[in-house]
Amino acid sequence: MMTGQEYKDSLRKRNIKVYIKGKLLKSNEVIDHPFIRGHVNAAALTYDLANDPMYEDLMTVTSHLTGKKINRFTHIHQSVDDLVKKVKMLRMISQKTGTCYQRCVGFDAMNATYSVTYEMDKKLGTNYHERFKEFLLHVQDTDIMVAGAMTDPKGDRSLRPSQQADPDLFVHVVSKDDKGIIIRGAKAHMTGMVNSHEMLIMPTMGMKKEDKDYAVCCAVPVDAPGIIHIFGRQTNDDRKCEGDIDQGNAKYGIVGGECLTVLEDVFVPWNSVFMCGETEFSGALVERFACYHRQNYGGCKGGVSDVVIGASAVMADYSGYSKAGHIKEKINEMIHMAETLYACSIACSAEGKPTASGAYFVDPLLANVSKHNVTKLIYDIDRLAQDIAGGIVATMPSESDLNDPEIGKYIRKYLKGVSSVPAEDRMKIARLIENMTGGTALVESMHGAGSPQAQKVMYSKLSNLEHKKLCALNIAGIGTEEKEDKKVD
Amino acid sequence: MMTGQEYKDSLRKRNIKVYIKGKLLKSNEVIDHPFIRGHVNAAALTYDLANDPMYEDLMTVTSHLTGKKINRFTHIHQSVDDLVKKVKMLRMISQKTGTCYQRCVGFDAMNATYSVTYEMDKKLGTNYHERFKEFLLHVQDTDIMVAGAMTDPKGDRSLRPSQQADPDLFVHVVSKDDKGIIIRGAKAHMTGMVNSHEMLIMPTMGMKKEDKDYAVCCAVPVDAPGIIHIFGRQTNDDRKCEGDIDQGNAKYGIVGGECLTVLEDVFVPWNSVFMCGETEFSGALVERFACYHRQNYGGCKGGVSDVVIGASAVMADYSGYSKAGHIKEKINEMIHMAETLYACSIACSAEGKPTASGAYFVDPLLANVSKHNVTKLIYDIDRLAQDIAGGIVATMPSESDLNDPEIGKYIRKYLKGVSSVPAEDRMKIARLIENMTGGTALVESMHGAGSPQAQKVMYSKLSNLEHKKLCALNIAGIGTEEKEDKKVD
Amino acid sequence: MMTGQEYKDSLRKRNIKVYIKGKLLKSNEVIDHPFIRGHVNAAALTYDLANDPMYEDLMTVTSHLTGKKINRFTHIHQSVDDLVKKVKMLRMISQKTGTCYQRCVGFDAMNATYSVTYEMDKKLGTNYHERFKEFLLHVQDTDIMVAGAMTDPKGDRSLRPSQQADPDLFVHVVSKDDKGIIIRGAKAHMTGMVNSHEMLIMPTMGMKKEDKDYAVCCAVPVDAPGIIHIFGRQTNDDRKCEGDIDQGNAKYGIVGGECLTVLEDVFVPWNSVFMCGETEFSGALVERFACYHRQNYGGCKGGVSDVVIGASAVMADYSGYSKAGHIKEKINEMIHMAETLYACSIACSAEGKPTASGAYFVDPLLANVSKHNVTKLIYDIDRLAQDIAGGIVATMPSESDLNDPEIGKYIRKYLKGVSSVPAEDRMKIARLIENMTGGTALVESMHGAGSPQAQKVMYSKLSNLEHKKLCALNIAGIGTEEKEDKKVD
Amino acid sequence: MMTGQEYKDSLRKRNIKVYIKGKLLKSNEVIDHPFIRGHVNAAALTYDLANDPMYEDLMTVTSHLTGKKINRFTHIHQSVDDLVKKVKMLRMISQKTGTCYQRCVGFDAMNATYSVTYEMDKKLGTNYHERFKEFLLHVQDTDIMVAGAMTDPKGDRSLRPSQQADPDLFVHVVSKDDKGIIIRGAKAHMTGMVNSHEMLIMPTMGMKKEDKDYAVCCAVPVDAPGIIHIFGRQTNDDRKCEGDIDQGNAKYGIVGGECLTVLEDVFVPWNSVFMCGETEFSGALVERFACYHRQNYGGCKGGVSDVVIGASAVMADYSGYSKAGHIKEKINEMIHMAETLYACSIACSAEGKPTASGAYFVDPLLANVSKHNVTKLIYDIDRLAQDIAGGIVATMPSESDLNDPEIGKYIRKYLKGVSSVPAEDRMKIARLIENMTGGTALVESMHGAGSPQAQKVMYSKLSNLEHKKLCALNIAGIGTEEKEDKKVD
């Protein structure tokens, strides 16, 4: 297992092409760019904590392939306990970073690909699962970071991939030979991509036969020829080029550091290809990844909410109103919501079941419920945080003002709350709240792991509405035998 | 294990005093009264299902005391699996009854008393736990139904028990001798009491030293001398004296059939006394019972919601609008909420831990979250059900109109929805929705297992706010060492 | 203007056929039936208050037809002030009745018919408006109560009137001659019908050409040959046959006393026909009525909410927790919602405009907003009322128990809250809250004046979305000239 | 009346001290700073629109002092119509700017001071009202912009002004002589201050006798000696130093451009002092200003919401999902909320009443309701906007990437939605949504015109809870005579 430092060192060796605000970064300095540095620190923590005996139980696990101790982020879940510990691990790390550490995406992509390739091979006689196990062994051995790459740009959302005016709006196979395949397209909103080693590409939705070329799953190094990453803007990203305070979370940044990854005729050798045209399994792969990923949100956002709640409580302490009844009510309400999020993630894990491959899968209905709650409750939690924190979050002078020899004294004088706490500390907490309740953070809670409608439509599919109707008919005494009821559950 | 019929027969043998609307019922006919009959049927189902091989795994379990197969409702939880199965059992039964079957109250009271008496004896050298085990053995052997009896009338809520103008507003010990104790007072909102065999009395809140006489826990037959039960009114209870349709749920009724139980100087022998003046353990007993009971609500109300959702979907089918987009959205939203409730109950169970006695206890924070969500989401689910069902729920003519030779034809003609479904069936579903979304059912979701504020105040107690503050301070870089963070979790 | 007593006397003279629970009532005793009595009392108050000098300004107005002083409920709005005073009148009466007094339905129907017949005549050269003015004069002169009759049973909601298996599921003209027309069908959810003198029948929705026979508007005496009224069940209606307390609101009842009115080949002379086949104006009539009626809901439900809020505050006083912070927060939240409802009704009135006929019409967009808020906020207000009131609302013994010589003492002892208030008063308030927050009352808030979706679909129609898009495009600097913006508003 | 250009020119003549990020700006270039420019443009629009005949009715009015035509922003409301037109004017301007134009603060401050000084003089025999009229005449004649200055830094919120460790945490009089007074302290969150001419200082809350020195109201030029303005940071402020697209709203910016205004021993001549020690009127002044200011929020935020709704609809068009049912539902829901906000502002205006001074005042209860709804519904509207807009809002590459010769082609290719719309336009709309739903904009909706709790506490004061209780008691038939009810209303 790598340490955080080793992880960073390994990233410098890549020959990656990353653009930020129209500038191409030097390959070995990508991780030092102020826009990227924090995300790297957050991901590095997933390495360091795995080497910390205090967190051994959550952060490490024994590989079912090799019997060696590995970082949990490279593991294939072998039990309900693994699923539950994943959630607890995520909450714990979030409490330390206050933001995304990105590594769950590849983790979930690997778990999804593992079981689906197994089932695909069983049904179709293909050989993808063995190939994938080789890839997995490599990941576990080297402890590299894998970016999960699912979301395509999608173009006109009313059209399927093959109907688009531009065929590249979804990643697709443009040619293949006996050595491998050439793919083209782009992946959007790529979390942690610029500080990963490999990406695991998956289709963005269930494909129909006419979209055969779009049913592709494969692993590619992030610095393979033909790949360009264009880093996205985050809320207040320019502040990262200044001092620390105004960033709010100078060490770990905001959310996941997403980029648009362009794949311009990228070659992938066959041993890294795990699906190529098997449209009938594309939906299963998407759904499995989505459920694993939706499982996370009550864990990581639960932890992030803990920080928001803590920061709100500190702000109330610093401002002298922590004893007000309505403040306590609001903090309790925030706790209620954070624990509701967490409970759903625990539940979908506790209700997990083994797949044919032996890998454990979450309860898909409850996993969707878990993420869906995040799309609403995080907004409510953050609204209450802004309520408690006060208008200062939106109008506070800058760190430069604080440090100015002429006017710094006014900042220190007038931004003070209770007299025992320096204004600087109050400013730091206000900036942290600003950082965590703002634009990028909210949007990520909405759309990460799929937009709310993506969860909502799963309910009709995953919940047995016919059984519910039968229950009602039985109780109302309408035309059914009670015995029938026993058959369903 | 008794069957439902044996359970009913056994109830007839009691010498119980029950008043309904100012009339004393004949003791052996109590369970035949239209107001009570449905509740008895619901409770009887907990007996019949235990004898049904299909539900053996959920409904029965091996006693840790005797090794015999027992009805789960008499069991002391020995594992996380027991806690989880309790929730699943509750949801399953609710799907069949659409309402409360009451037996969980005594179940939870016994589990709470079991572990608290153990701890009390350890600390104080008393002998309550052994006494209680004897009582428990009796319950398991005879499969009797035990009513949990916690809530006192409380009088002036701003005063403690010993401060009330009338000392009887909380149940208390009025005298004791070497044979036993005499208690006086009343218990309010007593679910399932009139169709139980024994009641397990507990204090209604943590008592201080000056309220010593009020710290009393004991078992008493429901027909002991000095006990009078006054049955409460439910929404539309008079309809139970008419035909079936207008009741909505003619077989199982509405909620739990609560009564006010008056204890007028009731004698309790020492071997049935499990706490008598040990104020320091009264709070623990209340809290433990409350958490076990709050655990249930995502199970039973999840199942009840399944029926409401199913009934709404049937009503949409019968009325011809089940394909409308907004109807589907609303049904999906109802499913989302029902599963959120369920997930919280599963989570607090999955996170359960053993107590010193070996009995398993739920995660108390998540158990409170579970119930708290019910106090809001059931209202939202029922609102959507009324939205989907239409105004007919509030203005529908009676069953007698349907059956009238003169005007029945108009009912059959004009209350029809889609032409393939008889108006009578549509009426039955409308009445079921009316039954399930109305007054008593809603209020029970609000106040059963404690009012919402009772859950909310637990958050400050059970959630580690100081840790959350520390997380925020660490990330904001304010005056703490990271090392410290590791100490807390 | 009639007094309440004269109103009641006049009702006894009708030869009306009303069925309740399968029994035909004696025509002159209809208003004495316990199920109906309260509704009559509420409607009678609209007569008595008009004779009370204290309320002269709100309750009476000068007829624009005759210059005589009339009851406002028979008036055609002649100004914004009339529209605003209507809302204030409704809130004031609701504060006295705590429930529906039904007379606004005919009031709104007359205002809608007045302006639409005017426009129809202008366009089509018909003579409906003069006919209608004659009818109106009669209503103003005699101060009779008119029931608005819009909602048809509708059958299969996915089919239009003429597509139904049974053509009678919407009221339609079955034949006509030079004397008049014969209509058949039924009207559902008829508020105040059984205690009105006339009904004003309107189509239930905009009709297309193929539904020509269904585009009919006319006035008919409620006791015309061929008419049968079947009274609907309300929550706890049977309690009205017992004592006072358990009714909650013994004087005025619950909501509007709805019935199903069957029209079995009813003859209507031409001078009472105000639309007959003019499908192109059917939609306008429906919409105009709907908007007038939706205007009301922030008025009457604002007043009803005042009573619910007051009752909750009294219950808190009586129980000893009115000083608790969370109780105050909840009451303030209830006030916030009640005033939001009221504000919307005031706003749609203040923004009213004259129609071509001179009658004033509300702002239709804001009128829809007004009703739509009721479909959600009344549920929230009532939920908080049940929260504050406590479980007693759902489990309280009966009035007969209170009056029983044996057990009455226990009721008086144990249902007491603070020692200074008799248990009986606390019971009365609990029953009032039960009455007002229960089934029928909630459902009426949902579906009265149209279900929520009926309001929601109006937003796309009434709100200028294209203008909103243009605003956004201008600010974003996309392809539009600023000058264009000025053209729209 | 000035034009926008004249307004800007006049600002250049000030000798104002403004700091941004630790740098003192050149006095005559303050309005050119990228952080400030947009706010100036927005305020300038209030001048230009007043000169546009199309908006004459909303934007201009006849002065009651001089009979001259003036900009409405300098007017004292003389009728309900004035109050209503204020709201309509605000919504109209917001639809053009998509953000705050700041001028209402001084407008409201002047209206509040006008009527309170009148009442103060009547009661205390002071001469403040005449002084204030002189000031007002000057404002109306010169059409200058006045900043309302109420909020003090407040320090420890659990302490009153005179109890603070530092006496300057609230603005106070440090000395006075026959020429005038010297004041010290600071005003926080000062909207539009750096582009105003004068500020009108008011106390931040009702003062008690011991806080006499803090009860001060006066007018001061923004560039008076001793005044320093420290400009606050806004979300994404640094983007204003780059190109246009990434700003979202390059012309008008975000919210109000707030600053911290330090008053370091500033001299104010007596003729500009309108309160000095009259603590008993400080509360009235605060409340009156607060109500006028809360009135606005349904107007300006209604207009801002129109832009957000329009932008969301455009984004749906551009992405190809504007026909999806759930998208339409969400847009209708947003419209519902925006109109609810607007309705409350219209209602509190329509219910306005004259004060003793003749100036019209809004209904204070409904004005609080208006603002309070904003603190919740704007969050819900913006959440739905982010839902509709998609994750692109949080991860979109920069304008520099779009313009880059190497990678611009990828941006244009992959950020396209429907093929007929250039990616650049879709980016512009996404950035506008990002701008309007982000941090600063949300926080301003929460805390502008007072935090939500400030509104909530007004409900108990302004709503007649005793009357509501009486209504409930009357209906429940508890111990009151109906006659009494008539006395209250």
TrEMBL record, chains A, B, C, D:
Segments forming a coiled coil: none
Pfam families linked to this entry: HpaB (PF03241), HpaB_N (PF11794)
Keyword Magnesium included in the entry's annotation: no
InterPro entries recorded: Acyl-CoA_Oxase/DH_mid-dom_sf, AcylCo_DH-like_C, AcylCoA_DH/oxidase_NM_dom_sf, HpaB/PvcC/4-BUDH, HpaB/PvcC/4-BUDH_C, HpaB/PvcC/4-BUDH_N
Listed GO MF terms: oxidoreductase activity, acting on the CH-CH group of donors
Keywords, in A-Z order: FAD, Flavoprotein, Oxidoreductase
Domain HpaB/PvcC/4-BUDH C-terminal: 283-475
Location of the HpaB/PvcC/4-BUDH N-terminal domain: 3-275
Protein name per its UniProtKB record: 4-hydroxybutyryl-CoA dehydratase
Record organism: Clostridium fermenticellae
